[in-house]
């Protein structure tokens, strides 16, 4: 549900704790953190704190950001399939896998 009185804001101004709502009006959780590429000023997505842990919402799935709520362009059923956000551990694991694949290619394996 879009409230026309609530003005859209940039992702940099989005505070923690703002409700995140799916396209069909179901509250998924609240904003835990905004992910961006600060050097290139690119919005990457939002980490949402849900009852079942933290989930990552990719930027293209975010329809609107206001001070009162974030509205997604996916429905609740699709939102339940969002990937778990593993924080720094997930980033380290991903980087190690990439590095391992590169070395494997270099060594002809």
Automatic annotation (TrEMBL):
Xref: SUPFAM superfamilies: PRC-barrel domain
InterPro entries reported for this sequence: PRC_barrel-like_sf (IPR011033)
Protein's name according to its UniProt entry: DUF2171 domain-containing protein
């Amino acid at each position: 549900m879009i409230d026309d009185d609530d003005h859209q804001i940039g992702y940099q101004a989005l505070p923690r704790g703002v409700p995140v709502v799916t396209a069909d009006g179901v509250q998924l959780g609240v904003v835990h953190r905004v992910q961006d590429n600060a050097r290139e000023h690119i919005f990457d997505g939002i980490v949402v704190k849900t009852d079942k842990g933290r989930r990552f919402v990719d930027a293209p799935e975010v329809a609107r950001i206001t001070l009162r709520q974030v509205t997604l362009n996916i429905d609740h059923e699709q939102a339940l399939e969002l990937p778990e956000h593993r924080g720094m551990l997930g980033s380290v694991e991903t980087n190690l896998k990439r590095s391992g694949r590169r070395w494997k290619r270099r060594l002809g394996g």
